């Protein structure tokens, strides 16, 4: 009882815009992420005003993928979560025919994974979309993007149906509420009305992609992906309990629509009270109702607290929250709460009664090479060990858990700040915030620890 299920998927998770580099090779178009090459900047800039940034090379996975996949294989991965850059397939997003060079590139990636017995787990849109769709259509604020996304999804499902059996639609779809340019291609000062309208279009596109995948790849599975931002009541005051309920509903809304196929009552009430009117076509309701994802996936890094007292709130890295006096923080100010993962797993399983997949979990920290040339990242090992122990507890609770892909198995460029110093990997990459470095790969202590965890299917974890 101290191991995970025999068919458990072990691996890591990466995103195209944070590892590939080569942002302008092989006819690739500019993405929204490419327009923020140094992290969160003003997206009001034009293509001509774009400056070079650390993401332009990232860690050069575009050329070094055989070496990196071999290292993943050495750790024992049987699964790698990665994303397809939409702009490698449709450079401007609205073309009628795809870019063959982009399709061929991912063929090579998937073939390399197959060579090592590693299952690809592909996200269709991971914090990026064609920037031309923002310029020419206004991002997801336009219904036309539903057609463009459907064409993109159909193209890659048809192309890779024999190579990829696990899919996700949108990465952390609920993050559009906090970072609208990243999520839906709207300006950061967009109104709630505009953001929720764009989200509606994205949810309809999600439903179309789910149905397409289930039709084209009947032996595959497609899920959604949430940022699992679970909030506890700050106190047992019923007002705080209700505040936590409201905070959790903000992100559960996405899972409810993608799983149950309809807008929940609490969201309809919120729209009424805020004067938000979502323009829908009659077919939208049927579209949402006819497409339920096969499984729920989520990222989990930290929990939060909610209080009815607005003075309690603290500005966070991305999401504001109320400090939890019972938890320690990481170097980047994120609360470390392994038991929160068990709570979240039980909560989501009880709510949706579908298989779950932890597709992101990890610790961002500043790693140092010691006098022996080694990276002793015991803090990362402790973080991941404690979270995996709680995931195992959730399995014993009866949760149907498909797998665990930690973020990110190799050091990569942070999405929000374009830092290399915020390292997550088991593999060190010699690249730094100023862009210097040789890009040499180096195994950290955690590399061998994770290797043992996978080899033992979790039995080596220390409770």
UniProtKB/TrEMBL annotation:
Transmembrane segments: none annotated. This is 6-phospho-beta-glucosidase. GO terms for biological process: carbohydrate catabolic process. One of its GO terms (molecular function) is beta-glucosidase activity. One of its GO terms (cellular component) is cytosol. Keywords: Glycosidase, Hydrolase. The keyword Nuclease does not apply. Gene3D superfamilies: Glycosidases. It comes from the Bacteria. The active site is at residue 360.
């Amino acid at each position: 009882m101290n191991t995970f299920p025999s068919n458990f998927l072990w691996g890591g998770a990466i995103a195209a815009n944070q590892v590939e580099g080569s942002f302008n090779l092989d006819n690739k178009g500019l993405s929204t992420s490419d327009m923020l090459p140094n992290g969160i900047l003003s997206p009001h800039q034009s293509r001509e005003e774009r400056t070079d940034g650390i993401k332009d090379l990232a860690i050069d996975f575009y050329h070094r993928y055989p070496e990196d996949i071999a290292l993943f294989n050495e750790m024992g991965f049987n699964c790698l979560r990665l994303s397809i850059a939409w702009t490698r397939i449709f450079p401007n997003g609205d073309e009628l025919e795809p870019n063959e060079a982009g399709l061929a590139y991912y063929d090579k990636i998937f073939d390399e994974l197959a060579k090592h017995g590693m299952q690809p787990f592909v996200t269709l849109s991971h914090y990026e979309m064609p920037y031309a769709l923002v310029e020419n259509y206004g991002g997801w604020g336009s219904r036309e993007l539903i057609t463009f996304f459907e064409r993109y999804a159909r193209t890659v499902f048809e192309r890779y149906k024999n190579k990829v059996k696990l899919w996700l639609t949108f990465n952390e779809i609920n993050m559009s509420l906090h970072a609208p340019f990243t999520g839906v291609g709207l300006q950061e000062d967009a109104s709630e009305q505009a953001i929720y309208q764009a989200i509606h279009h994205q949810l309809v596109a999600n439903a179309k992609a789910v149905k397409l995948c289930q039709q084209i790849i009947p032996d595959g599975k497609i899920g959604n992906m949430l940022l699992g931002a679970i909030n506890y009541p700050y106190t047992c005051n019923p007002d705080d309990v209700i505040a936590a309920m409201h905070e959790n509903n903000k992100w559960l809304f996405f899972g409810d629509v993608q799983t149950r196929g309809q807008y929940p009552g609490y969201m309809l009430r919120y729209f009424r009270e805020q004067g938000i009117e979502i323009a829908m076509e009659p077919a939208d309701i049927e579209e949402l109702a006819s497409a339920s994802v096969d499984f729920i996936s989520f990222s989990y890094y930290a929990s939060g607290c909610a209080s009815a007292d607005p003075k309690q709130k603290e500005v966070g890295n991305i999401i504001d929250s109320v400090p939890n006096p019972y938890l320690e923080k990481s170097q980047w100010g994120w609360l470390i709460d392994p038991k929160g993962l068990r709570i979240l797993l039980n909560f989501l399983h009880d709510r949706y009664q579908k298989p779950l997949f932890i597709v992101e979990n990890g610790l961002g920290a500043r790693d140092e090479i010691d006098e022996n040339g080694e990276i002793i990242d015991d803090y990362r090992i402790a973080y991941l060990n404690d979270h995996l122990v709680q995931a195992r507890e959730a399995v014993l609770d009866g949760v149907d858990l498909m797998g665990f892909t930690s973020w990110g198995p190799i050091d990569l460029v942070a999405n929000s700040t374009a830092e290399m110093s915020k390292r997550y990997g088991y593999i060190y990459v010699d690249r730094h915030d100023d862009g210097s470095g040789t890009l040499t790969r180096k195994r950290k202590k955690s590399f061998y620890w994770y290797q043992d965890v996978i080899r033992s299917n979790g039995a080596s974890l220390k409770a």
